[in-house]
Amino acid sequence: MALDRNEILLGAGQFYGVAYSDAIPVDEDFEVDDNDFGRTSGGATLTYKPKEYEVVDDANEVVKRFITSEEVSIKVGVLTWNLDNLSKLSPATTEIVGDEKILSLGGASELPSYAVRFVHEKADGKKLRVTLIGTAGSGFDLKFVGDKETVVDAEFKALSQDDGTLVELREEIESEDIVSPTISSVTPADNAASVPADSAVVWVFGEAIRPSTMTARNFSVAKDSDSSNVAGALVISNANKTVTFTPTAALTASAKYLAIVGTGVKDTSGNALAAQKVTDFTVAS
């Protein structure tokens, strides 16, 4: 059989899927049990198919080629039985009626979008992640055959992201940089008093951090009296060295607040913050 150079075969691994809205979840939120399709069978197949157009001159020589379209799909054999997963493979709805879960197929015209990821762990413990946003319009077969297990082929076809990307392959590698990132400064400063109620909290790092680790889990401001988190927005700037938290509403007068940075923050080499960093400040009366 001729070698298909557009097909990449990956070894065994975990397959995840989550309804897509406007962003792909960060790794720690994506790769959780609630998003896991379950046990896989037969690994995964990632296929990339470009369509070419050739410019041929009068001497019948090819002088240039263009790619006019591209198609990416991923297919994974899912061994674990789960009606919720089947609902992701077609326009379907699920509901619980009494002691039954019911999956209803048919009648829909629009395919829902999902962020899907296959994670393969290499022999050295490093992970290869294949991520795409796609739809599952190929349907599925349910085969109940004698004493053989039922394997559902989950196939998703990629949608173009804003920058044209169809699929991302991300491989963990050994890094020469093994030093944890450090925080150069925090504003307001630790133990600061009479801080204006509309102040933002600004953390400045000694090196660039991964934007994907700039999450509410890793950067938060909480009221000291009851540990309630302050609502607000996070923005990264200064070549990814500065993170700014701007509260949605004015802070409470005379109240003490904690500015917290968690160990989930990583630099561009994947090194995590060595320890949680907590500073406090008091709002002006």
Put the structure in a nutshell.
The chain contains 2 helices and 18 strands. By secondary structure, it is mainly beta.
Any key phrases for this structure?
single chain, 285 residues, mainly beta, Immunoglobulin-like, 2 domains, 8-stranded antiparallel beta sheet, 4-stranded antiparallel beta sheet, globular
Description:
This protein is mainly beta. The chain folds into two domains: 7-171, no CATH class; 183-283, Sandwich (Immunoglobulin-like), CATH 2.60.40. It has two helices and 18 strands. It has helices at residues 27-30, 83-88; strands spanning 7-10, 14-19, 40-56, 62-78, 92-97, 100-105, 114-121, 127-135, 152-158, 168-171, 183-187, 192-195, 201-205, 219-223, 232-237, 242-247, 256-261, 277-283. Strands 1, 2, 3, 4, 7, 8, 9 and 10 form an eight-stranded antiparallel sheet that branches. Strands 11-13-16-15 form a four-stranded antiparallel sheet, with no helix packed on it. It has a four-stranded mixed sheet with strand order 12-18-17-14, with no helix packed on it. Strand 5 (92-97) and strand 6 (100-105) form a beta hairpin. The longest helix has 6 residues, at 83-88. It is globular.
